[in-house]
Amino acid sequence: MALTEPAYLVGTGGAIGAILRYGVANALLWWRGPHTFPVSTLVVNVLGTFVLGVIIFGSGGDETTLLVGVGACGAFTTYSSFSVQTVRLWEDGKYGYAVVNAVVNFVFSAAGFGLAWLVVS
């Protein structure tokens, strides 16, 4: 099997994305310390959406899309964590944080995607 097989590309990208995700979380923890609002999840979701937009709007080839778009961005972004964190904030009575988290993740990620379109166009 060649290293350009879809499974290798997605797996390699996934490994890269997961390591980058871990790095961002640790860097933000070091920089800001523990906090109530899930900042690292917001950061990776917005950055990942931007990068995915660049791949899509930049007409990345199939291999690039699999490696970076599906693999790296798929492992880097974390909408499942975003969902759990939002529900936990709500359950903890931090309704404002929960609403802000949901709105900011959606709006900033959409803005990241739009910015990617502007950058590539």
Structure overview:
The protein is 83% helix and 0% strand. With 121 residues, it is mainly alpha-helical. It has one domain (6-120). Helix 4 packs antiparallel against helix 5.
Task: For the structure shown, list the relevant keywords.
121 residues; mainly alpha
SSE blueprint:
Layout: H1 6-32, H2 39-57, H3 62-76, H4 79-91, H5 95-120
**Beta-strand percent range:** under 5%
Main β-sheet, in a few words? Answer: none
User: For the CA atoms, what is the radius of gyration?
Assistant: 16 Å
The rounded distance between the terminal residues' Cα atoms is 36 Å
Helical amount: over 70%
Oligomer: single chain
Mean pLDDT: 90
Structural class of the secondary elements? mainly alpha
The total beta strand count reads 0
- Taken together, the total number of domains comes to 1
Low-confidence stretches: none
Compact summary:
Helix content is 83%, strand content 0%. It has 121 residues and is mainly α.
